[in-house]
UniProtKB/TrEMBL annotation, chain A:
It holds the Pfam family MbnP. Residues 37-235 form the Copper-binding protein MbnP-like domain. This is Copper-binding protein MbnP-like domain-containing protein. InterPro entries: MbnP-like_dom (IPR046863). PROSITE patterns: PROKAR_LIPOPROTEIN (PS51257). It comes from the Bacteria.
From TrEMBL, chain B:
Residues 55-157, 207-327 form the Cytochrome c domain. It comes from Wandonia haliotis. This is Cytochrome c peroxidase. Its main location: periplasm. Keywords: Heme, Iron, Metal-binding, Oxidoreductase, Periplasm, Peroxidase, Signal. It is found in: Periplasm. The keyword Oxidoreductase applies.
Amino acid sequence: MKRVKYLYSILIVSLLVGFVSCKKDNPEPTPEPSATTGTVKVKLDHKWGMNWDAFAMNTAYTHPMSAEEITFTKLKYYISNVKLKKTDGTWWSQPESYFLVEVGENTVPELSISGVPVGTYTDIEYTIGVDSTRNVSGSQTGALSTSNGMFWSWNSGYIFIKAEGTSPDSPSGAFEYHIGGFKDENNTNAIRVNTQSFGGELAVTGSNNPMIHFYVNAARFWHGGILLANVNTVHMPGANAITLADNFREAFIVHHIH
Amino acid sequence: MRGIVESIGIITLLFLTACKKELTEVPGGNEYSFLVPSHFPEPYYQFENNEVSQEGFILGRKLFYDKRLSLDNTVSCASCHIREYAFSDPGKKVSTGVEGRVGVRNSPALFNLAWNPSFMWDGGINHIEIMPLAPVTDHNEMDMSMQDLMSKLDTLEEYSLLLQSAFGTREMNDQRFFYALTQFLTLLVSSESKYDRFLEGKVQLTDEELEGKHLFEQNCAVCHAGVLFTDYSYRNNGLLLDPEDNGRERISLNPEDRGKFKVPSLRNSVLTYPYMHDGRFETLEEVIDHYRFGINLTATTDPTLVNGIPLSEEEKAKLIIFLSTLTDAEFCYNPVFGNPFGE
């Protein structure tokens, strides 16, 4: 009787092993045939200057153009409304697409773009900032929650970018750039949209781990006449915010995909 | 027989209609739902995603009266918005926040907020839901970060119970905080003054009140328009300007908006002294005298005020008598809007 039980066990185990190995033997792709979407990771690798030197918070750098000395203590910004372009020229838009990027100890924050339809993609479009609709729609949640400290209380609207730090070249010894503004009147719209080609094809199969690897040049704020010596505090929409938004959008390049 | 049946039918219809009308006519007929008074326009706020419930209102009311919203537990919303004075801060040019800090502008009265397209004297806040963010986080008012406030409220058991009944979760977040406060604030509808009863044909105005009404319509209603007594525009009403406060220009960045402030409603204005964005006038007499012969002309002074408003002393008195008919005691003493902490 004991022996029978033993045989039974062997039989069950072999069946199980057989079942598993059968599954393993299946031809590629391995996932369930129903996988119609995948997740694309976006890495934002923060660097210093166009030579892409290493960048870290709380570290003093010399600006490659102005030679001003700059130390970052905070760098936070919104990336929103991510879109991906398929090889057939159509665009896929991620719904509810709002990410608050915060550069900390880890200077390579990673965004997960989920629900991307299986396919091959060539370009990405994204907004640096928050679309005007969400600036006038009352209380929001998640990345857009006011608890993130990225909303102006006295002049409703999101602070799209917060860059703060210290500098001996600033008259105040510090800099605080709070960049935002969504209205077209009086030219205060600081929403910036970038469209960039991968220079290759990004396949989303539902089982692979596609990644778009950006380099982001933190030195790019100081460009087009913006020097710490003359602009060290920006706390509202307006001309300086516009220039800084124009500058920072140029900080992003797609370095590679895989 | 047929005639009798028809009559009964008509009488029943009339009765039903009357009942229905009564409901819309009395705000707070159900005291926890938002009803548009029959003589008011449609509100600006649409209650999208945030329909008023009794539980949400009660949560919002508690938050409004809770001093723990401030950094040192000394200041609540109600500290500067006192119910008996139509939720204004009587007698204070500017209000006092934590540690005795003072602000720069006069605390506005709070009523009929669902009709406001924007908030604050310069209209800088574009949505009622996020209006409380300013007083909560302002250094001179409650001086709390939203993050710290949410953590603080999360430690209070009494709130988790209220949250559970209002929103089906015990966890506080800023959206639930704003939604609940919005539910309380939008229900602060002031529509039962003597003037409202007059509009509804329920009472007569005295001869003096009627004369005052006529003067008002001729001289003031251009800006203090309609049944809400404001057109919600921004205007420079000829005050001698403080170079430190450019009003609407700070928001619009348009020099044409220099010295412009939002036209306030004149409902309950007898109670909401002092007056103007900086509380510079203590009485309605002073306010009217300013319009009579105090207009300061600048590039942005409202064109309607360039020659002032010529009124005799007698007319001034009648105007104030009319403004008194806009006082809504039912609103100011409605216990539903009172302090749940029983202080």
